[in-house]
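for the writeup, i need someone to sanity check this before i put it in the appendix. the sequnce is what the collaborator sent (i think, or maybe the updated version? ugh). structure was predicted straight from it, no edits. if anything looks off just tell me and ill rerun, i have time this weekend
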Amino acid sequence: MENKLICSGKESNILEIHNADSIIHSYYDMSAPIQFTMTYCSGLSEECYYNVMSVSPNKDYFFSSRIRTEFHQFNNARPLHQHAFFELLLVLEGSISQKLEDKEYLYPAGTCCLINQNVFHIEKYIGEAKVFFIGLSVSFIRELLESNQTFYCQREGTASENSILQFMASNLQLEKGKNYLDFFPAFQNKKSLCELRRLADQLLRAIMLPKLGAAYMIKGLICELLQYLDTKEFYHISCVQLNSSSGQLLFSRIGHLMEDTDGRMSRAELEKALCYSGNYINAIVNKYAGMCLYDYGLTFTLKKAAYLLMETGMPIAAIEMKLGFTNRTHFYKIFKKKYGVTPGQYRKQEKNEKESV
């Protein structure tokens, strides 16, 4: 069943699978400049089903099946694989487990991952999930990188201004580099799933119902997606080296969320956003920051307080209120412990230093 799907590169004319019967590693090649695959797993029980739709300029491929023993074998025992192309993964619903080399990571809805050609990996379904895969060939990437030579608008921007394109450009020059990009939505980005689904839908429509200018439309939509993911107000990007521990990526995501919320994100909110238990999140923070979750969040709150004292004329009482302090004595006490002076003295010092420069 699913083994036929995964190993049927010649039948589908989209992916060519080498060493498909290996229990260690297999290798995927692509006969088209770009290909899209939408997968949906409704769950892991016998009543559930698994759908796959792969499309490319060459050919389309569709597959649907009930969850049976073969699927669980496919889901749990597939070998790691690598590509001759870049793969951008978008989780549109649910969560999946992603194994990258010897480490496993949880990718909840709204998160994305861009894997280079050298990283061995495999995705595992752990429940209901919808995932959109974008295969980007080396030739397609080079076309995007060279597009700035023919752009029409001065304010259009160039490939050198997009960190994702630059990541792929640098990887094209490093034949053996093993790294990938992790994309985690900013806390304020409440529409990440809507935007990812919109772009995925438009890409599928453009390639399945091609009309005059379809190639330009697809390139434009890919650039729009890369620009969206590279916008700091919408997404945080972490470049992960394969020699880093799996906990470091989670700690990085925790730090991003704390930065977004000035340290005022509750344990329950972190659990919901990260899909990990509060105890595990606290353990990760303790391991990498040497403090409990509450104290770690407080470092971001005090950092923001110092910034507001230094860069704005907000009254101290207003700063306290903005950052969620209800006890002035407590705020003064922890601020002085952190910076050695009271908030008023800190503002005065910073003002005097600016004037003396």
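Residues 44 and 127 are 6 Å apart (CA to CA). The two ends are 72 Å apart (CA to CA).
thx in advance!!
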